[in-house]
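1st attempt posting a full record on here, be nice pls
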Amino acid sequence: MRTASPPIECRSVLALGGARSGKSRYALALAEATAHERLYLATGSAGDEEMAARIANHKAERGAGWSTLEEPLALCAALEANARAERVILVDCLTFWLANAMFAGLDPRAETKRLCAAIATLAGPAVFVSNEVGAGLVPESRLGREFRDCQGRLNQDVAEVCDAVVFVAAGLPTLLKPSSQPHFALR
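the predicted structure (as tokens):
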């Protein structure tokens, strides 16, 4: 019989996965189990009717018990202003935030560095959702390839500063960090 792993004490979690992998649903459940006071920090914005419908659907799925702050660009300032010990923040998602930063002409490396510094000093728990974009096709355009590369670096850097990293596929979470590293037993 397999026993459950003991809970991991952490203040920051990165939930990674592909589109429609279940990463946001996982992050919501984790946040709801963490604190009664919850802030959903949304980085996407409704640029068209389809996106507006998605945002409305996400709000309805969250239900009561959530405050929402829409901040497509100033993520670090929003985290610093709203983090506190009794509140969990769910950032959904870093992929939209990075795209927003790049379209605004900001340096993605500098913004990633600022975000990682903010995560390391947060006054309360936070869950970050991000897309794993590097496992698919190579984008056709130069901008697409640049975005994929920046997203990959963002995920690596955020994973490094977060206490735990979970990869979600088909709705199933797999803990990536913390984990023991494999080693060879030399004879």
